[in-house]
Amino acid sequence: MPTKNAGSQSLSAHEVNVTPIVDVLTLVPGQERDVYHGLKAQLWTPIWARGIYGGTLMSQALVAAMQTVPQDLNVHSMHCFFDHAADDKDDIVYHVERTSDGRSFAARMVRASQRAKTVFHCRVNFMRKSRTGDKLVHSSPMPENDRPPPDVVIIDSITQAGNTSESRPCDCVRCPLDPPSIAPHDRKLRHWMRARGVIKEALRGDAQSSAQRLHTASLAFMTDLYFISTVYRAHGARRFTSTAFAHSLSETVASGSQERLDAAQQFIRLAGQEERSELSDSRGADREIGMMATLNHAIFFHCTEFRADEWMLAEMDTPWAGEERGLTMQRIWGMDGQLLATCVQEGVVRLRQRRPARSSKMA
């Protein structure tokens, strides 16, 4: 259970009274072959978002694909496409197509639908562990300047955008930003992340699955944390501190429960404080984000043995933005310095356009 420490709540990876990530990743088999259901009770909609968290769709689709391949096949990549916003009002249904099965490789296409409408689809690629022998090996080194958080974390240090729900299945602690003098395409944004609780079991309902598959799916869930926001944060633009955002969010939750309204107000306050601290000396703080949405997301898995319930360092950058889109790159390392995964994401990033001032002169 959370404890008190010096007047602030603290959180241990081994003492968490929240819904564990294994619940999010538990799918219910359908009546047809290779059909699985993600229950609506496990679909998380961020208070500020139009639809459910994208990492839920990616990780559940990966779990569905894993259920259709032998245990000695490990996922090495998945390529995801977000077609329509999904909500938490109905279950998500995952249909798996067995695209190919070879001696070394296998591929699966997964289509996620809600109310008979496709909301997401992806291709998941698997490979048997390579044979022993001489191999070409290299990887990017882990940054050395950012120390991992302690096992027991002061809740105030957790990224505020992720600290509004007690059922959040993972922790995220941001690292200090690069100086604003660095150009947007050169800025690095880093955070530490981990699954809450201790992952001990294999995927429920899959007799041939190992616990490692649950760690891999948990990592897929976390790869979407604050990923596309790299684009506007690299520019020092505003999202959560604008009056228009606060007004829009308040209108969105006005018809909901008092609990949701209170959560929205708390989020505006906490996320605003966090954003203002980042924008204290930013050159782009006069620009506001009007709309953001992920278009596609790719994950390349490099390691088959790691723990997602231990701290992992994610480093993100954005090599390009234009035409109201942005591209982001992410590298993720384990505590031992091993490069676990590389991710690429493209999304829509639109600025709020200011209306030109009307002339007071008569025509």
Automatic annotation (TrEMBL):
Domain of life: Eukaryota
CC annotations in GO: peroxisomal matrix
Domain Acyl-CoA thioesterase-like N-terminal HotDog: start-end pairs: 48-127
Gene Ontology BP annotations: acyl-CoA metabolic process; fatty acid catabolic process
All residue ranges annotated as the Acyl-CoA thioesterase-like C-terminal domain in the record: 176-349
MF terms (GO), sorted A to Z: fatty acyl-CoA hydrolase activity
One Pfam family this sequence matches: 4HBT_3
Protein name: Acyl-CoA thioesterase II
